[in-house]
Write a structure and sequence with these properties.
Number of helices: 14
Structural class: alpha/beta
Number of strands: 16
Oligomer: single chain
Order of helices and strands: HHEHEHEHEEHEHEEHEHEHHEHHHEEEEE
Distance between the termini: 38 Å
Shape: globular
Strand content: 15-25%
Largest sheet: 9 strands, mixed
CATH topology of the largest domain: Rossmann fold
Helix content: 40-55%
CATH superfamily of the largest domain: Response regulator
Radius of gyration: 21 Å
CATH class of the largest domain: Alpha Beta
CATH architecture of the largest domain: 3-Layer(aba) Sandwich
Number of domains: 2
């Protein structure tokens, strides 16, 4: 049944493409889509499940494209989560004939590939980049809402937990500084954001003393129960978890994380990090599309069966739909039509495992809710730590689990 649905969607794409002109004979034979990820998750652990979801989508779409005489070729390039490598890899994919790229994951990488997209006309579809500064009318589409939405969820989370003072601990890159700016523009009284502590990528340990001092000052004024640290960075927090646990102020207050940390497999696999997350009742936010649960179930089961039980499945499902849209748009595109025009035609009717993909005027997803997740051991103290759902934010309302 699923394959029949995909065939119907492909045929619909080709019919819709008549407004763009008939595809060329060369395109009828070979459909090329590039992928930019930290493919093996060696640097950013969550990318491994995203890569697997892309493979599943390519498998499903390729089988049905073959029925109408098209051959899908997927070109993977490993970025090692490095923006410079991502830019070079994007150019390489363009040179090899890819007019659509699935990825990259992070906002720093997305920022780095923008000049390549502008120069070549290639469209990149990111499943996880959220920086507000990238909300531009360009060839970057993002199947996730930007951080202007995330900060609304975070501000409601602070209020729900009785927090008066938030100390931001922020990675000094496009992602961290952009989310910090969005927080400062949105969070208002009675919650107060004090001056942030910013760390350079690769040097998180260097600022722990400053963070301890900043939090200590806040605790003396407001009490530990009213103070929280808002961490905005990736899972390099694992590297300093044991040190954080030994610091009196930092281990006595609540911690909140954002989407780059939420459901990190590396974090819960670390004994020290998981223990610290439990001790400070760490809660992180992750954007969640309004799934088509019936259609998503099979893909989720395959990902879980492959061992990704602690992985960011929301981003993985975004990636599945990104690959489907990229392949359908390239299949339907004529030589005279731009990749962006073809993608916008497909998105008028496309509904995938994440439901209807509605983009705003800047090409960002317009309809994400947010889940709140925390580190827990649901099967007892001796069981493995995992990320568990603890609440849900939608339409400026917070719903917490009992």
């Amino acid at each position: 049944m699923k394959r029949n649905v995909v065939v119907y969607l492909i045929l619909s794409a080709l019919l819709a493409a008549t407004a763009l002109g008939a595809p060329s004979s060369a395109q009828e034979q070979r459909i090329v889509v590039g992928v930019l990820l930290d493919v093996d998750g060696s640097v950013r652990s969550g990318d491994a499940v995203i890569a697997e979801a892309v493979r599943l989508a390519a498998r499903d779409v390729a089988a049905d494209l073959e029925r109408i005489g098209r051959r899908l070729e997927v070109l993977f390039e490993d970025t090692d989560a490095d923006p410079r490598v991502a830019a070079q890899a994007a150019q390489e994919l363009a040179d090899r004939g890819a007019r659509f790229i699935v990825g990259p994951t992070s906002s720093p990488e997305a920022r780095a590939v923008l000049p390549v997209l502008e120069r070549t006309g290639v469209v990149a579809i990111s499943m996880a980049s959220t920086a507000v500064e990238l909300a531009l009318d360009d060839n970057l589409m993002r199947f996730v809402s930007n951080d202007a939405v995330q900060v609304r969820a975070l501000s409601h989370l602070y209020a729900e937990n009785g927090i008066d003072v938030v100390v931001p601990f922020v990675r000094a890159d496009e992602y961290g500084l952009d989310l910090l700016a969005a927080l400062r523009s949105h969070v208002a009284s009675p919650v107060h954001l004090v001056d942030e502590v910013v760390y350079e990528p690769g040097a998180i340990r260097d600022r722990l003393g400053d963070l301890e001092a900043r939090v200590s000052d806040a605790v003396r004024s407001y009490g530990a129960r009213r103070v929280a640290v808002q961490y905005v960075g990736f899972d390099e927090l694992v590297e300093v978890a044991a040190e954080l646990a030994a610091m009196p102020a930092l281990s006595s207050v609540r911690w909140f994380g954002a989407d780059a940390l939420a459901v990190s497999p590396r974090f819960v696999a670390s004994k020290e990090a998981a223990a610290f997350g439990e001790a400070v009742d760490l809660i992180a936010t992750i954007p969640v599309p309004r799934f088509d649960h019936l259609r998503a179930r099979q893909i989720i089961q395959e990902l879980l069966g492959a061992g990704f039980d602690s992985a960011p499945l929301a981003y993985a499902l975004n990636a599945y739909d990104a690959m489907a849209v990229a392949a359908l748009a390239e299949s339907a595109r004529s030589a005279a039509a731009s990749p962006k025009e073809a993608a916008l035609v497909v998105l008028k009717w496309f509904s995938g495992v994440t439901g209807k993909v509605t983009l705003d005027e800047n090409g960002d997803r317009a309809d994400n809710d947010y889940y709140f997740v925390r580190v827990a051991r649901p099967f007892g103290e001796d069981s493995e730590a995992t990320w568990t759902l603890t609440g849900h934010w939608a339409a400026d309302m917070v719903f917490m689990e009992d």
